[in-house]
Amino acid sequence: MIGITKFLGRLRNWLTLRQVQLGLSLRVTVAALLALVFAQLSNLALPLWAVLTAVIVTQMSVGRSIKATADYLAGTLGGALYGGAIAVFVPHDSELALLLVLVVAVAPLALVAAINPSLSVAPITALIVLLVPTMTHASPLSSAIDRVFEVAIGAITGLAVSFFLLPSNAHNLAIDAAARTLEQIAHALGELLEGFAQGLDINALHRIQDGIGQALTHLNAVGVEAERERSAHLTAEPDTGPLLRTLLRLRHDLVMIGRACVVPLPDALQARLRPVLVTIAVSAAAYLRASGAALMARRAPPSPKAMDEALDAYATEIAALRHQGLTRTLPGEAAERFFALGFALEQLRQNFKDLERCVAEWALSTRAGRAVSVRARD
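and the corresponding structure tokens:
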């Protein structure tokens, strides 16, 4: 009985963590089924292409579905028009002629797709328009028209399902990705600042920076989808640009700190600075994690007081070290790393203020949206 309870608890947690993925799975399944039904009701020659199109354009978010639908329709229409024109106006009665026609049809479209990947379906469509008539004995013109209708039905079905069945807002995905990135930055900051006491291996440094870089790449892609939804007036959420730029600047701060922490500080400075750096690492990590949680909950940003106090304590300690002349005896490279750390921490303070404004903006937009909803109900 206890084992069953634990299993159900783990299953419930897994389902909670995978809500977005489960929603996509349901949307794709429903889109495929509906596309097949509509294709059969429309008496399409090849319902398969309607079903495949519906599956392809049903994406993780509405913004991504809009992009996939526009790209797929554009590529299909261009490929069908060009392939149909080649099939109608260029004779290909023999096998050799058919091979030459395929070259003429595919090569230019493959070049276009290489230049503009959003049109990658164009050469495939041209091939279908050219080859399907050899198997079904239909005319090239009807093959092109059928192909366009098949894709149109699948695309419209997939897009409609993305809009109305458990729609996934790209802004929510962006906030979730931003919160995870803040968690990574918080963890990395602690590791990097610890490097000033014992040094940091180059491979470990690359691992830390690459992980954050990958998270920012994903966040940027989701941000593009979110802005596509804003452009289509599908959401009134804030612009994701300021948040993305703030996280990128925080990553740049980590890069500067990482370059400075490869070699540990001299023992004389470690004894004075390590306790302060530990305090900065703890307070900064707590602030970053609290900011991520505030973004997810769309609430006011946390107080930066602990972080500011830690940075002020560091500045006070640096002033005391310089007054005592302990920084004058530093070797050239050590002095360079020492002052690079101070600059990076000051930049970190400024970027934390930008992060605070971003979190406040998202919280304010949510409260404004709730107020509008209340007035609408009244």
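(Above: one complete record from the training split.) Residues 261 and 327 are 17 Å apart (CA to CA).
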